[in-house]
Description:
Elements: H1 14-17, E1 45-46, E2 57-58
Amino acid sequence: MEEKKYQTECGDNCKKQKIKGIDCDVQNCVYHDGVSDCCAGKISVGPHSAKSSSGTVCATFKSREY
């Protein structure tokens, strides 16, 4: 089975920039490494008015163009 190659915003630095302890399933984000890690370097989560985890969003998300 051939492994998919994802083009990330982080390019070849994705492994260096991945955020330890953050698991990400959003494969259509440019910061997703194609497995389960975020390589944005840092993330912003909001909004400040959230009352539960379902009311939060990753403000760093940037849609990947296929």
